[in-house]
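User: What would this chain look like folded?
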Amino acid sequence: HGWKGILIEADPEKFKQLQALHEPLGNTCVSAIVSGQGSSPNSLSCLLKEQKRKQQQQETNESTSEADLHVLPNNFDFLCIDIDGMDYWVLSDILEHSDWKP
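Assistant: Here's the prediction, encoded as structure tokens.
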């Protein structure tokens, strides 16, 4: 498909469906609630930084198989978050406070 994406879903059942559909394609799925406030630990920039930290921690753990690693690209093509009404603030947070550039 030629693109990399990050998909975020808070609902556990919908997240399982999202994972089943997108992770085989090489996309990263994150189960989280996203806040529109940049200072919140649930802001998109904080969530992505935490996901990246977990990924790096897994990579240093020799018992983790390649199949268990989800690569979080710094420059991704597609970002999907199930949010209602906070789109502007979430996008503003990631563009202003992180290295990720969707």
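The first strand starts at residue 5 and ends at 9. If you want, I can go into more detail on any region.
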